[in-house]
# Entry
Amino acid sequence: MRYEVIVIGAGMVGTSVAWHLQKNNAEVLLLDKKLPGSETSYGNAGLIQREAIHTHPFPRQLSEMIRVLPNQGTDIRYRIPALLRYHQALLQYWKYSTPASVKKIEAEWQTLIEHCTSEHQTMIEASGAEYLISRKGWLQLHRSEETLKEAIAAAIKDREQGVEHTVLTIEELKAMEPSANFDDFVGAIHWLNSWQVSNPSLLVKSYAKNFQEMGGTIKESSVNEIVQEQDGWKIITDNDTFYSDKLVIAAGPWSNDLIKPLGYDLPLFPMRGYHQHFKVTEKNTINHSMFDMDKGFVMGPMQQGIRITTGAEMTTMNAPKNFGQLNTVLKFARKILPLEDAVESEAWAGSRPCMPDMKPVIGPAPQHDKLWFAFGHSHQGFTLGPTTGRLVEEMIHNKPLLVDIKPFSAERFSQ
Ligand SMILES: Cc1cc2nc3c(=O)[nH]c(=O)nc-3n(C[C@H](O)[C@H](O)[C@H](O)COP(=O)(O)OP(=O)(O)OC[C@H]3O[C@@H](n4cnc5c(N)ncnc54)[C@H](O)[C@@H]3O)c2cc1C
# Structure
């Protein structure tokens, strides 16, 4: 079984890479241990974030560090084994988080984000997934005048980058979301040109189905070994062996496990998030996703119910779930909306694949021919999958590139 390209990982990123390659006449095998969109791309908040032109730097102000230290926050928590395990990556993350460095990183990051909705649109149309998309924007709620004022000033500047918003008073918010209680809030930013997906996993599955309709192959099989051969690659899975001329690694937070035996050790680290759905009733129906800016969690209207997603927990990939952060989030969420019957008996958890310089790795592998990397999209991989997919196809087929990919090259960690 020989293919022109094998893509490992059928999350939003790998599926988009496979889709673009197949569309451009490559013969592609998309390999995943699970069905497409079953891991991180299943559990996210489902936002296609045109407004996400700013990255998430490591907290460097003393006041922020003092706030995070007691480990009781809703936006960020940590576990000591993870701090020890990823200390080198975290140290780099700290170094990349100076204001000057963030400014440069964000300028590069924005070259990707500006294409996010148009690149999704191409794939949405091709795969008939329009019914999953809402273009009403989403609401960023503020509990303090101070954070609202700062956010408004930033949002006004962001207009220069094509990000559209309006500022909402509490009365306007109430009119838009009559079920919600905004007593603890002072106002909101309505991000107008970002989109909400009612079932993130189903969007990935729709793209994957369209990939198959174009002649692409999907196999559910866990990759155990990657071997470079004279004429390409041999991929040994738990139940088969596949061959290809070219290989793309798009395995999200697992990508390092796959490339380490080839001699790569990139500073990829996971940032876990949790979600739980609650049954929709007359009393808790909402029309928009709402992000509680000061507590760092999202409440979104999904096909499965109202999805509450937490902020980040710095932990190791296989650490047991710890529901402390989610339980604290739920206390705040329940003051906004009545959330009674949980849909699942246990909350979902998954890991954002993060890089210390807050940029994904997109590009050729530095030490091997015919090998490409596409991972590390951290908080916005659902948003950036299609843009990344297009770029990888353009690189593989030696076409002019949509954006300069040098800032995203794996080589940046070689020095
Ligand atoms: C709580 C939370 C909320 C989020 N909200 C948003 C949001 O609103 N908007 C946004 O843009 N992003 C959001 N994100 C981030 C986003 O979900 C991720 O960046 C994105 O899903 C990463 O996609 P991926 O394809 O790289 O990885 P994944 O979706 O994790 O896919 C990787 C795939 O690789 C496969 N794989 C791994 N190892 C192997 C192997 N050995 N063999 C075969 N297959 C393998 C896995 O099974 C998996 O399917 C959120 C994340 C979390 C956790």
